[in-house]
Amino acid sequence: MEVFRRRLANVDALPQLCLLGVLSGLLTGGLMVVFRGVLELGALTFMPDGDPEAFERLAVPLRVVLPLIAVALIGVWLWRMPKSAGKIGIGHVIERLTYHQGKMPLRNWITQWWVGLVALLGGLSAGREGPAIHLGAAASSWIGQAMRLPHNSLRVLVGCGTAAGIAASFNTPIAGVIFAMEVVMMEYTITGFMPVILASTTGAVVSQLAYGSQPAFSVPSVHLVSLFDLPWIVVTAILIGLVAGGFVRLAKPTTWQTRLPVWGRFLAVGVAVAALAWWYPQVQGMGYDSLENMLVGQPALDVLIALALGKLALTALTIAFGVPVSIIGPILVAGAALGSLCGLLWAALLPALGSSPVMFSLLGMAAMMGAVLQAPLAALMALLELTHNSTILLPGMLAVVVAVLVARQGYHCSGFFIATLDDQGLHPLQRPLLQALSRVAVPAVMERSVARAPRVLSRAQAQELLAGKPTWLVVSRENDNPPVGLKAAGLARLMLDEKWQDEARFDLLEIPGQRVDLAPIALQATLSEAFEQLNKYGVDALYVEHTTAPLIRKISGIITRDAIENYYRNK
Questions:
Q1: E-assigned strands of 232-338?
Q2: Is 451 helix (H, G, I), strand (E, B) or coil?
Q3: Which of 242, 332, 437, 438 has the fewest CB atoms within 10 Å distance of its CB?
């Protein structure tokens, strides 16, 4: 196991990371099967035919009171918790990856189970992708934490759990990979890609074993009828980009909202959902049944408007008022509805030349996802895998790029999750230096040839110490002060110096030599953590320690600022 950990500390530990990717995929795929099973089991108690999406078939009083019960249950759960414990979903995963090297708290994970299930069964406008990603990423991270792996491998495991969660939810393994790299990890590397690909594939296979290999939605074969459609696709994408940017703005908490008491905000969410659900129950839940209806049939015009604007507004209101729900499902449904409305209008203007409204629904779905998340590649891969139709990629690329540009330039939108974390004073876009250093763990660079030494030692003790040919001596100090690093070569030269031949004892903190103040760093830490620790303590070197037995700390090596900088320059 120690050799396994040491290999993972390096940037090129592909075989080991690929093995971890498979484990992550198996665990995440299993968790998604359990999550969906618990959701369906809960739906059996009160939903028609046990269908968690059948809000349209519920009696009006029941579907109206469900959102009020849901926000009450979520509010009671979060009531006594510290604010940090209530953070869940994709934004929480990105925050933990950026600021905590992918370490995921158990309390937030449990909260995700409760909030995810209650929100979906209670008819709030929410998706299951956020819970899938959080549950998978956290469980995958715990694999590394349980095995005490270097933190750079925890980052990859979080990406693996993210990809496997998306793949298991939609049966879209490629989109899962791109989503993990583009939205969560925000970097593309070979060592990141390969384990994430394996995790996504494994997660999809586990899901298929439980639910079959059918795609998430039944999509008819559609294609671009005429190049005359392209200008209208651009118009549709511009509209979707504007709506997407407006959604991100609307979901941002404002001053007057934060002044309201928490119970008042949660009550407002429940009342808003209940009011719209009285007339249009299609806005409740994930909305995948409504999306399926758009792709194989044609909902009424007023239902499309309710889905395009009402569901999107409800989702934004829910987020802005502090109810932590997933947004990916709702934005897919709203984008498809808005695209379908544009397709119907185009078919009315050019009945002989216009493409099917179904094609515009698919383009709207991808364009909305790309614009809200600022993730064009993930949106395109999702479009390709959901349709199994490569001919739709040409109009899809046009629609996604235009929508992303409009949202980005018109609203200065950097993506929903980035914007949310920015509002909290967090900046998930790492500097290139720290991002590069986070891929490598301390053991890959540290100097291992070290020896512990007391402050004062005899000549015989010094000779015995130097016989091991250490590069550094870690000199202990009294009163639990941090140790000091001393170059062993300095002590060796001193003992050979004629001026010191008669010296029987040496004070290692007083003799001439190159000494540096030291601060601690964990063996599992990455180079970015080491760099931040150097700056925090204002030192030029760190001693690397780990626990070999309960309450026994061992120093494994020393890592210097020069070693980190030289590694970065050479790589």
A1: none
A2: strand
A3: 242
- Please tell me the predicted confidence (pLDDT) of residue 115: 97
Q: How far apart are CA 238 and CA 244, in angstroms?
A: 10
SS3 560: strand
Global confidence as pTM: 0.89
Please report the sign of the dihedral spanned by the C-alpha atoms of residue 36, residue 41, residue 42, residue 47: positive
Query: Residue 356: what pLDDT?
Result: 87
Q: Where are the alpha helices (DSSP H) in 87-189?
A: 89-99, 106-121, 129-146, 151-170, 173-179
Four-way CATH pick for 228-423: 1.10.3720.10, 3.20.20.70, 1.10.10.10, 1.10.3080.10: 1.10.3080.10
Delimit the CATH 1.10.3080.10 region(s) of the chain: 1-212, 228-423
Confidence check: pLDDT of 458 > 90: no
**pLDDT of 200 above 90:** yes
| 77's tokens | 């759960």
Contact indicator for 311, 338 with CB cutoff of 8 Å? no
Q: Which of 59-63, 192-196, 251-255 has the lowest mean pLDDT?
A: 251-255
CATH code matching the domain that covers 1-212, chosen among 3.40.50.2300, 1.10.10.60, 1.10.20.10, 1.10.3080.10: 1.10.3080.10
Of the pLDDT bands very low, low, confident and very high (cuts 50, 70, 90), residue 430 is low
Position with higher pLDDT, 124 vs 468: 124
- Alpha helices in 350-431, H assignment, sequence order: 357-373, 376-387, 393-411, 416-423
- For domain 441-570, which architecture applies? Roll (3.10)
Alpha-carbon separation of residue 139 from 69, 103, 326, 461 (angstroms): 29, 10, 18, 49
Name the H helices within 280-310: 288-296, 301-305
| Section 504-517 average pLDDT | 83
- What's the rounded Cα separation, in Å, for the pair 311 and 291? 12
